[in-house]
């Protein structure tokens, strides 16, 4: 029986960033889904299947940080990587204290993102 590939879910209101990340994840051998908002992700069937979540911090409606907190409060633990075009050191510290795996500032290096993914999926490879 074939082992299923880890699912990486990308939540970003910026379509070009969202699709670029989804494409990168697929090119690395992961299964990837992309969502335009936290609400769209939460209403999808992918939440319980997601092995790692990449979410933008600044989005209309629920922010990436609020999405992470919502998931934690509901008992859904998904390793989360937050990305932002507006880095804020106090937000970064709060996010990491709340269990976010990584907090990356855009533009970020692909290798930095991959390091975050590998650290969040220590026993899963694509």
Task: Give a verbal description of the structure.
It is a single chain. The protein has 126 residues and is an alpha/beta fold. It has one domain: Response regulator (Rossmann fold, 3-Layer(aba) Sandwich), CATH 3.40.50. Helices cover 38% and strands 21% of the residues. The protein has helices spanning 15-27, 38-42, 64-73, 89-97, 110-120, and strands spanning 7-11, 31-35, 50-56, 80-84, 102-105. The protein has a five-stranded parallel β-sheet with strand order 2-1-3-4-5, with helices on both faces. The longest helix is centred in the N-terminal third of the chain and has 13 residues, at 15-27. The mean pLDDT is 93.
Short description:
By secondary structure, the protein is of the alpha/beta class. The protein has five helices and five strands, in the order βαβαβαβαβα.
What attributes characterize this protein structure?
126 residues, alpha/beta, Rossmann fold, five-stranded parallel sheet, 5 helices, 5 strands
């Amino acid at each position: 029986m074939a082992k299923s590939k880890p699912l990486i879910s990308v939540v970003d209101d910026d379509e070009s960033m969202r699709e670029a990340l989804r494409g990168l994840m697929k090119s690395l051998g992961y299964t990837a889904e992309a969502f335009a908002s936290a609400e769209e992700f939460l209403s999808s069937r992918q939440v319980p299947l997601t092995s790692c979540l990449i979410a933008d911090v600044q989005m209309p409606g629920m922010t990436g940080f609020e999405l992470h907190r919502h998931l934690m409060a509901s008992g859904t633990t998904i390793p989360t990587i937050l990305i932002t075009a507006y880095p804020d050191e106090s937000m970064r510290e709060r996010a990491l204290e709340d269990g976010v795996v990584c907090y990356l500032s855009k533009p970020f290096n692909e290798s930095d993102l991959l390091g975050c993914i590998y650290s969040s999926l220590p026993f899963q490879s694509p």
